[in-house]
Amino acid sequence: MFASINAVQPLGLATAGLSSVFWTLAYLLIIRRAARDQSYGMPLVALAANLSWELIFLVVTIAKDGLDIRLALILPWTMFDFAIAAQCYRYGRRDFANPLVARYWPVALPLIVAFAAAVLLSIIHEFADAIGWYCAFGQNLMMSILFVAMFLRRDDLRGQSIYIAVCKLCGTLFAFVLAVFWSPPTLHEHWTALLPDRYTPVAPLLVTLYAGVFAFDVIYVAMLHRKRRDLGLPPWALRDA
């Protein structure tokens, strides 16, 4: 069954497209909500890992094939993450009571981005992860945990919305569906085409990582839903997206 589904390339492209659409919506909603609340909407370490991944594979994509379809996905995400980083710089200092955090805030993000890039490059080398799947699902797990931690630390809705949480959940869900049906024969040789020409079982590590991502994404949606209900707010009000 997997092999026959794998042969339907348009379905694979549609799955990748849906993942991209939901992740793009998540970024845009984070920027919109953060601007309105004068806060930042993505945890600092998660932002650093995202930005590092995007910059690494933006460079790789341009080096391998400047016309590769991945460029249309990665370039907008990189630009959105720079906008989120600007909001983080502008509003982040006030989010922490510790005076040391406030003092060193201007250098925090570039240092964390540099360290995250070093870690991701090490993972790419260690696992021959040339298309960044292990890195992407690994940092998605970290991001999902950090969104929950950020909500618990703030105990309010600043910079967050249930629609951001749902878009993140759906974006990673469709990415995992793509990984299940269209895993490349080897993660380190798959670059010439967006989709492989034959089915290869998804790596168990990706399954384990995604199980954690899904669990924390569902928890995050449920926590936001409950908080809005406790505050007497309509859980799914579009004006609060």
Inertia-based shape: globular
| Low-pLDDT ranges | none
Total discrete domains:
1
- SS-derived structural category: mainly alpha
Q: Mean pLDDT, rounded to whole units?
A: 87
Q: In total, how many beta strands?
A: 0
Strand content: under 5%
Alpha plus pi helix count: 8
Q: Portion of residues in helices?
A: over 70%
Radius of gyration, in angstroms, nearest whole number: 18 Å
Helix-strand pattern: HHHHHHHH
Q: What is the rounded distance between the termini?
A: 39 Å
The description of the largest β-sheet is: none
Short key terms for the protein model shown above:
single chain; 241 residues; mainly alpha; 73% helix
Q: Which SSEs are present, and which pair or pack?
A:
Elements: H1 2-6, H2 9-37, H3 44-64, H4 70-91, H5 99-127, H6 133-154, H7 162-181, H8 204-230
Helix pairs in contact: 2-4, 2-7, 3-4, 3-5, 3-6, 6-8, 7-8
